[in-house]
Amino acid sequence: MNERPGEGSLGGRGALTAILLIAFSISLVGIGWDDGLINAGGFRAVGQILLAAIQPQLTLDVLSTGARSTWTTLTYAWAGMTVALIIGMPLGIIGSGTVVRSSWTRRWNISSARLALAVFRSIHELVWAWLFVAALGLSPMAGVLALGLPYGGILGRIYAELLQDVPESPLRALRSAGASEWRVFWFGRLPMALPDMLSYTFYRLECGIRSAAILSFVGLGGLGHNIQISLQDIDYSRMWTFVYFLIALVVAVDIWSSLVRRRVAIERG
Amino acid sequence: MKTTSPSKISPAISASSPSSRPPAVLIDEAGKTYGDVEAVRPLSLTIRPGETVALLGPSGSGKTTLLSMIAGELEPSDGSIHLRGRNLADLHPGRELSREVGMIHQQYDLVPNLSALQNVLAGRLGDWGLVKSVVSLLWPQDRQMGLTALERVGVSDRARVRAGLLSGGEQQRVAVARLLVQNPAIIVADEPVSSLDPARADEVMGILTEAARKAGKTLVATVHSTDVARTYFERLIGLRNGAREFDLPSHLVTDDQLNDLYALEGLRDE
Ligand SMILES: Nc1ncnc2c1ncn2[C@@H]1O[C@H](COP(=O)(O)OP(=O)(O)OP(=O)(O)O)[C@@H](O)[C@H]1O
Ligand SMILES: [Mg+2]
Questions:
Q1: Which residues of chain B neighbour A173 with C-beta distances below 8 Å?
Q2: Is the CB of B39 under 6 A from ligand 1?
Q3: pLDDT tens for each residue of A31-90
Q4: Contacts by A127-132, CB closer than 8 A, 24 or more apart
Q5: B65 lines ligand 1 (CB under 6 A)
Q6: Can you say whether residue A93 is alpha, beta or left, with left for phi > 0 and alpha for psi between -120 and 50 degrees?
Q7: Ligand 1 test: best mutation among B32, B33, B34, most atoms within 8 Å of CB?
Q8: Fewer beta carbons within 10 angstroms: which end of chain A, N or C?
Q9: Residue of the nearest CA to atom 19 in ligand 1?
Q10: Considering the entire predicted model, what is its pTM?
Q11: What is the ipTM of this complex?
């Protein structure tokens, strides 16, 4: 896909575009539009769904279910993030290779921690969910672990990089004041990386809430589960109530995160 | 690990210092080369305890290189350096070295999102255990010591402000306060005021030399302004192309010598 500069004249590129356009047109014709890819009733359904968006169901019953399942989803996301932090923090620190001086141990630490993190995050949370549901049954534990493992892998990797990318001169000053590597870590590296680590963790918490909602489709309860049931009942108004709960939850976390970040971040270097 | 046996003091050094106190800094034909570049040509130099010495010289003359070698941050290519009678190469990096010598850099060496007080207390990290260090992040330990140091440099009212929010002059004073808390015998400062405006530079230089003098510390600093050097330092050493041009008490250094030191190559009369 990358165009190497100088290669391929304008004419050549034009020809390529033409070929792609033709291929695209052929594929449009090739699709069997009448075979139910878009069913005729589809447009009506979309209309209904959009109409329902402005009239969500606000009965006490639905609202209390919404509140309860919002809580469930938040708990899943929260517990999952806790597991992710327990995995990501130590592995991230070790994987950053910043607290060990001896170069051989260091290299070994970095590669083993990074390998573990890579394994955790290369498998999607839904796949983890299947694995854990198969192993543990439909239990909250399965959901929490399914979320925590890949998120831990992602957090750890980002933490490792943020901890490495800290300006060197304050660290050098701490070392010359007699601080060992661990003290340099606590007094220099961590405080300097913390604002970015925090804001990334909050971003991940937001993603975690969405993932927790999706995981609840797997049958673990929560907002996603209720959205699914509403869809099965073709009750779009009720579905929208739950969707709005989900949106409100994400927005609330966003507001909270910006409040926390403002306290930790620094405006002027 | 502490070995302060007299056997460490080589005969050459004892001979060069007839008094009981060894020189604060003794440089014995130490030099530094980077490939073909002789950043500092081998030179010998003795600095008495409590002396205040300014290194002068044009850009690239080897001032930073020489200072870094004295501070133990850079190993000489040849020769040796002794601090208070002990070979620098034998000092354990970290705690032991930090007792002997501490360095102030030009700028940006505070941790920006820790408070001024915490930055000052970082001067204690060599003495603190790991637990105490971590606890100190939330509840600063040895608080009074830090506040006293901040008071000495005149910024105690900024103790709780994050270092990154302080002005350049205030940051440089906090760095001085940190060094006071670290309490090394020898203070080395590389252009500690070059990022400040002239008035602020004067003030911080005054604070630094005053603090050093009061505590009986040896101070070696590179300074850009010859006025500052003559005002605040007892002894001036001129470097050019990695070699010493002059080494005199500051009141004996003439304007001609200074002009010559900074003159462009080819414009020098000699
Ligand atoms: N790490 C290095 N690698 C190669 N050459 C270096 C290195 N550090 C310094 N030099 C060279 O050594 C010489 C002396 O450098 P040094 O930094 O000591 O000069 P300086 O007197 O401090 O200059 P300035 O006033 O500009 O700070 C210069 O020619 C420089 O290019
Ligand atoms: Mg320099």
A1: 103, 105, 109-110, 122, 175, 178
A2: yes
A3: 665 555 556 667 777 888 888 888 888 888 999 999 999 998 899 899 999 999 999 999
A4: A129/A215, A129/A218, A129/A220, A130/A218
A5: yes
A6: alpha
A7: B34
A8: N
A9: B60
A10: 0.75
A11: 0.77
Contact between B31 and B38 under an 8 Å Cβ cutoff? The reply is yes
Instruction: For residue B182, give the nearest of A172, A178, A195 by CB distance.
Output: A178
**What CATH architecture does domain A47-264 belong to?**
Orthogonal Bundle (1.10)
Cβ(B176)–Cβ(B153) under 8 Å?
A: yes
Contact partners, residue A216, CB within 8 Å, separation at least 6: A69, A72, A73, A76, A143, A222, A223, A224, A225, A228
- Cα B190 to ligand 2 centre (Å): 7
Q: Where are the domains of chain B?
A: 110-183
* Whether A178 and B127 lie within 8 Å, measured CB to CB: yes
Nearest-CA distance A242 → chain B (Å):
41
Encode chain A (269 residues) as per-residue pLDDT tens digits: 444 444 445 556 777 778 877 877 777 666 665 555 556 667 777 888 888 888 888 888 999 999 999 998 899 899 999 999 999 999 999 999 888 777 888 888 889 999 999 999 999 988 998 898 889 888 888 889 999 999 999 999 999 999 999 998 899 889 888 888 889 999 999 999 998 999 899 889 888 988 888 887 666 778 888 888 898 888 899 999 999 999 998 889 888 888 887 776 654 33
Boundaries of every domain in chain A:
47-264
Tokens of B213: 């003098």
